[in-house]
Design brief:
Strand content: 5-15%
Strand order of the largest sheet: 1-9-8-6-5-4-3-2
Number of helices: 14
Largest sheet: 8 strands, parallel
Radius of gyration: 18 Å
Shape: globular
């Protein structure tokens, strides 16, 4: 049994969050993770409120366990998404792409736990002061939109700087990674790519297959010059991003190239021209299991590594 403030805070059995991935983190995946004892999270992405409402209705029909909604603060529908969160009294809200401080007080007034994703010590301190219940610290190893600092260096620095629980994200796929994150000061982990390769994930089979085939150096970072870098698996789209960036194309051209590309990969299965967002741990994933099996395997692996470390020091 792991004693974690995160489990007590959220009423979950295991300190494992399922990462929020647009077009991928649907109610089916989130419910499976919640039912397995972790925290399933639906990704609102840039979807309008009526689409997110359908996912909330669906997850309520699939589980009675705690769940979360990830809200992108730069979404064009942010105001209506927040209204939906309030009306549905969503148990947990994680946030990305900005500072959620102006929403925290109102969210907490309805009992919602607020857990922002932070890329720096400065923002971590700011959201803690605003009343955040915990924070997700995501390193550059993660898939999708990323920062510059690694999980290894960012987690301990933020853990030392705040008093609220830290959830480590980026580069975690098994019990060894979870054990390492806890050693760095985390009290939970957030895992994305591993859950993509789960039976309950609704993403296109070709998307899963390309992750299963990936090797250690098969992810690249695209769009650095835009200020919003994205980690994806190498394909024609990645090569085109590289060509345009080296050519010195405008930010607008690069953004146009990337627009809608996650959907055509995740939903339509176009793995050459679509954006296959994936963390660097893709090379560690070689099978598809149920979310329950994945979580049980991670927890067992962490226990075994903990026992091994105790043996070393005895």
């Amino acid at each position: 049994m792991i004693h974690s403030r995160v489990c007590k805070l959220l009423g979950i059995e295991y300190p494992i969050f399922q990462g929020a991935m647009a077009w991928i983190s649907t109610a089916e995946l989130a419910a499976a993770v919640s039912n397995a004892g972790g925290l399933g999270i639906i990704a609102a992405g840039n979807a309008p409120a009526h689409i997110v409402k359908k996912e909330i209705d669906k997850i309520k029909s699939l589980t009675d366990k705690p769940y979360g909604i990830n809200v992108m603060l730069l979404s064009p529908y942010i105001d209506e998404i927040m209204e939906l969160v309030f009306s549905e009294k969503v148990p947990v809200v994680t946030t990305g792409a900005g500072n959620p401080s102006k929403y925290i007080k109102d969210l907490k007034s309805i009992g919602t736990k607020v857990i922002p994703v932070v890329p720096s010590i400065a923002l971590a301190k700011r959201v803690e002061k605003s009343g955040a219940d915990a924070i997700i610290v995501e390193g550059t190893e993660a898939g999708g939109h990323i920062g510059e600092l690694t999980t290894m260096v960012l987690v301990p620095q933020i853990a030392d700087a705040v008093n609220i629980p830290v959830i480590a994200a980026g580069g975690v796929a098994d019990g060894r990674g979870m054990m390492a994150a806890f050693s760095l000061g985390a009290e939970a982990v957030q895992i994305g790519t591993r859950f993509v390769c789960s039976k309950e994930c609704q993403v296109h089979d070709k998307y899963k297959e390309i992750i299963l085939k990936a090797k250690d150096r098969d992810t690249v970072v695209t769009g650095r010059s835009t200020g919003h870098p994205v980690r994806i698996i190498k394909n024609k789209l990645a090569k085109e991003f590289d060509r345009l960036e080296k050519k010195g194309c405008s930010i607008e051209e690069l953004e146009q190239l990337g627009a809608g590309k996650l959907k055509i990969a995740a939903i339509d299965g176009d793995i050459e021209n679509g954006s296959i967002m994936s963390g660097q741990i893709a090379g560690m994933i070689n099978d598809i299991k149920s979310c329950k099996e994945i979580i049980e395997e991670i927890m067992l692996g962490m226990k075994e590594n903990y026992q091994a470390m105790n043996h070393i020091w005895q």
